[in-house]
Amino acid sequence: MQRKTALDFDQRVLDLYDDYAHGRISRRDFSQRVSAFLATGLTAESILTSLAPNYAFAQQVPDDDSRIYSETFRYVSERGGGAISGLLTRPTQLTAKIPAVLVIHENRGLNPYIRDVARRLAVEGFLALAPDALSPLGGYPGNDDEGRVLQSKRPSGEMVEDFIAAAETLKTHPSSNGKVGVVGFCFGGGMANELAVRIPEVIDAAVPFYGRQPAVSDVPKIKASLLLHYAELDSRINEGWPEYEIALKAAQVNYEAFTYPGVNHGFHNDTTPRFDEAAARIAWQRTISFFKKHLI
Q1: What is the distance between the alpha carbons of residues 125 and 217, in angstroms, rounded to a whole number?
Q2: Range(s) of the chain covered by CATH 3.40.50.1820
Q3: Helix, strand or coil for residue 12?
Q4: Do residues 121 and 101 lie in contact, with contact meaning Cβ atoms separated by under 8 Å?
Q5: In this model, does residue 58 exceed pLDDT 90?
Q6: Which phi and psi angles does 284 have, rounded to 5°?
Q7: Closest among 236, 255, 237 to 245, alpha carbons compared
Q8: Which class is domain 60-295?
Q9: Of 269, 197, 268, nearest to 226 (Cα)?
């Protein structure tokens, strides 16, 4: 199976797909607008198929990897959606309590890519919890298009509370050393920033991948150390970075920020053509080193 890359597409097509994937335009709007950029013989539907996640590429750490223990984990979000489930995973062998990391998915629920990210963290020695914000609606439906529709039906404030409850659960989990990090992607990146603001007494380290920035007025509330990953071609998210950086410096928040050249929003997601192997590898190495520095 041949993997397509961002270089196989006109950048304007990738930008329109980003609008579609984030609900800013409809499928019909995408089809109408993208037609101007299509080569002979291509259709809007074929482009959507090519750009959609292929979860055959999503497994770096198998479900049955002997190095880790994984289970379906349930907790209660009293101020949010009630009963929430997700994937909890950790190293098989535990000789002491270990640092915990909350993994927050994109705007489509707990798909195979995010589950694999949690397992990657377990291999590195962390207790990782990846909740599914779609739990109150039956959970991730098996494909991202339906997942996006379902997630759009959930009140945003309730989802914030669901992830707050998850972080608090990790802090007191029997296997946790009491230090909690959070990593999130896209929607989850914005949520990682939000949790750093909302529960500074819980979050010790936050790693947003191309995440929406919090309100500047809330930045002084942040006590966690931050590692911020941005994509050079992600103009929508990047618009908020200069103001955010000024606020971080003014509040003396401990942060590191990297913008990866020539890559798109979603460059870490290895199931889509927007994936950039080199940028994803170094961003992940930085993430693991950062968590080991601030959580162990």
Answers
A1: 35
A2: 60-295
A3: helix
A4: yes
A5: no
A6: -70, -40
A7: 255
A8: alpha beta
A9: 197
